[in-house]
Fold:
Amino acid sequence: MAKSNKESTVSHRSPKAKVTHPFVRTVLGIVAIVCILVFSNWLVRATSLGNKTIDLTENQRHTLTPGTKAILSELETPVIIRYYATRKSEAMPRRVKNYMRKVDNLLARYKQLADGKIRIENLDPEPDTDAEDSANLDGISGQRVEDENVYFGLSISCLDQQTSIPFLDPANDTMLEYMLSSAIANVTTFKKPTIGLMTTLPLAGTPAVQPGAQPGQPWIIYQLLQQRYEIQNLGMSPEQLDPEQTPVLLLVHPAGLSSHTEYLIDQYLLKGGVLVACLDSFALTAPAQDPRMRGMGGGVNKSSTLPKLLERWGLGMDAYSVLADGKYATDFGNNQRMHAHLSLSTEAIVSDDEIITKGFENLYFPLAGGFTVKGDSDVSIETLISSSDQVVLIAGQEATQADSGIFARQQPTGESYGLVMRLNGKFKTAFPKGDPDAETEDGEEAPVSGLQEATEPSSVYLISDADFLFDRACFQQSQQGYVAVNNNAALLQNILDQCTGSKHLIGSRSRASTTRPFTIIKEMETDFEKDLHEDVDRARTRMNEIVQELQNLQMQKTQGTALVLTDEQEAKIRELQAQQMKLRRDLREKEKSLRDRKDKLYAKITWMTVASTPLFVAISGLAVWFFRRRATRAA
Amino acid sequence: MFTIFKRELKSYFTQPTAYAVIVIFLFMSLFFTFSLGNFIKIGDANLEWSFFFWHPWIYMLLAPALGMRLWSDEQRSGTIELLGTFPTTIWSAILGKYLAAAVVWLIALLLTYPMVMAVNTLGDPDNLTIFSGYIGSYLLCCTFLAITCLVSAFTRDQVSCLIVSCSICVILVVIGFDHVVRIFAQTFSEATTDAIVSTAVLDHYQPLLQGALRFQDIIYFFSIILACLLCTSAILNSKRS
Structure:
C-alpha cells in the first residue's frame, strides 16, 4: 500500500506524468478494472474450472454417481444428445423453466466428463420450424400449454440406435440422472441383450397335444420380454452356462434342479453372470402333468428352491410353506379373504429411492414363499419388497382355500419376510469340493475344479414367487388388448433392464427428493388418522352388533307378518341413530382439535420467528439510545 | 485499518442506523417468508424458495441504505481531507469502513437464526444446504455493499448515492429474472442473452441456495467486490490529488 503511494508520488514528479490529468487517469484505471472484471469472469465461466463445484448438500445432489461417471468414461462411440427445449415461449411454466437450468447444467457436466464423446445439440422447436419436425421425428412429444405446443425432452442417439425421453418432468427430478445414463448405456449397446431362460413353467407356450391341434400360447410376459431381449431357452439341464453368451440368467420356478445344474449356476455367477431367480414354495401354475403324456404323469413339482446356493448366501427359505399375511391379504368378495394371496401396497416397498420399485403402487403375489436372512454373508443383501410382520407360515395346499380362522389358530411369527431381494458383491462358491456329480471312472471323487471365488462383483435378484408372472396375475384383457393391472410385469422388466443395461447402473438409486416436508405435521396427521381409524373401527363394530341385535329381534317376532316395529326395535333404532350422530360429532370434534393443534403450532412458530428477534434488536437499540442520552445529559 | 474498522463499527451501534436497518431487514425477510413465500402452506423445510429467494430484493434496497454514508458523509462534512493527514492509506480506510458495514450485515443475517430453528423444529431440513444459502446471501449482500461504496465515493449527496446504488443493484437483480430473460431471448441472440444473464446476480446466487458452491460464482462475487473497492480507491485518490 505504502509502496503504491510512493510510486504514485514518484510518477507525479516525472515530466511525462504531468501531462495526464488525475481524472483521466482514474477513468482509465476504472475502465481497465472493469475490463479485467468482465474478462476474468468470462474466462472462468468458459473453462471447466468454472464448473468445479463443492457439493454442500447432505445427499450429494450435485455430484454425479460413480455409475454415471463409469459409463461416460467408457464411451467409445460418439453419442449425440438432441436437447429440445422451448425457451422463447411465455407459455412454458416457470417451474419447468427453472428445471431447464438444472438440465442445462447436468448436460454440461455429462459433456465435460465424456471427454468429447458426447455432442449436445440445443434445439428450440418453435412452431413450423425444422426443429419442431425433428422433435416429432425423434419422438419428443409437445405438451399443450395455453394453446401452444411446448417441448422439453431429450433424444439420445449413437450411430443407428436412438432412444428418447419425451418430456423431462420436474416431478421426476430424482430420476433424471438415472434415465439419462441408462439411455446413453442403451444406445451404445448395439446388440439386443441376451437372456438365458430356465423354467419348468410353460412360459414359452406348450406344444400341440396331438398333430393338428393348436399349441398353447406363450405367456404375455414372455412375449413382452421377446420384444426387448434375445431369449435363449436353455432347458432345465444345460450342459454349460457361459456369461459371455448369456450375461443374464433368468430362472422361473426351477423345480427339481439337479445338484450339477446348481453347481453350473454357481460357477456362472462366479464368472460374472447375473442371476434373476423366481423361486416358489407352491407354484399354482406348475403343470400337474405333461400334456404330451396324456394323463400319464410327468408333472412339475410345486416347490422350487436353490438349496445349496441360498445357504451359502446366508439366506433361508422354507420350500414347502407359503406366507399368509394378515396385512396384505386379498379380498376376493363374498367373504373370501385369502391370506396367502398377497396384494402388496407401497408399504411393502422397503426403500423410496430404489429405482426398480420406484412409483410402484400394487403388486400381486399368489402363494409366495419368503426369504429370511440367516446370518453373516460374503455379499451385501438388500430387501426390495417385504411382507408385513403379521405372517403365518402355512402349507401350500392349505393356502389354496380361504381360511378366516387361521390367525385365531396360529400366532404370527412376528417377522417380516423378504419377497424380492438383491445380493451384490464378490460371491464365493457353494461347492468348495467342485462339481458334486463329477466322479472318476472307478467311482472316486474327481479333483476339485472350478472357481472358488468371483474375481469381479456380480448380482443376484431373488423373487419368492413365480406365479406373479402368470397372465391372470398381472394382466387384464380389454378392447385394446392386454393391460397391466398391477406392477408385476414392470417388476421383472425393471430388474432385467438393470441387469442387461450397464453393469454400473445395477443397484443405482434415484436421487433423494429435494423437498423436505414438515415431519412434525405429518406425525400429527398420522397419529390423528390412527386414532380416527380405531374410533371408526370401534363404532363400526358397535353398529354391526346393533344391526345383529335388530335382526335377532325380528326373528323373535313370530306373530303376524305386518311390518310393524315393536317398541323395543324402535328404541334400538333410536339408539343406533343417536350413536351415529354422536360418532359424527366426535369425529368432527377430533378434526377440529387437529386443526387447532396445527394452527396453534404454526402461530407459535410464526410469532416466535417473525416478531421475537426484530423486537429484541429494536429494544436493544432503544436501550443504547436511552443510556447514551442520559450519559450525555449527565456530562 | 483495524482502528478505522473499530471506530466505524462502534459508530453504527451508537447511532440508530444499524438497529433500524437490522430490524427492517429481519422484519421484511421473515415477513416475506411467511406471507409471499407461503412457508407454512407449502410445508417445505428447505429455505431455498420461501426464505432466501427474497434476500436479493431486500438487499437491493437496504444495502445501499446502510452503505450510502460510507464516503458521501466524509465528503460532505469535509473529513475526507483529514484522512490525508492521518498516518494511514486510503486503501486501509476503505477496507476498514467496508468491513465494518459488512460486519453489521453479518450480524443481521445471523439474527435470522429463529428461521433455522423453526425448520429444524418442524422437519428435517438439509442444514448444509441452508448453510450454503447463508454463504450466498452474505456474498450477495457484500457485493451490493461494495457497489454502494463505489457510488458513495463519487458523490457527496447521500440521497443521490442511495438512488444510484439502488438502481445498479435493481438492474443486477432484474436482468436475471425469468420474465426479463425471456424478453432478452426474444430480442438478442442466444450468446448475447447468455452474456447478459451471466452478469446477473441471480444466476450466481441460485446455485448457492441449492447447496452448489461453484468456482465461477465465488469468483463472480469476489471479483465485483474487489473491483468496486479498487475503483473506490482510485476515485478517492484522484479526488485527493
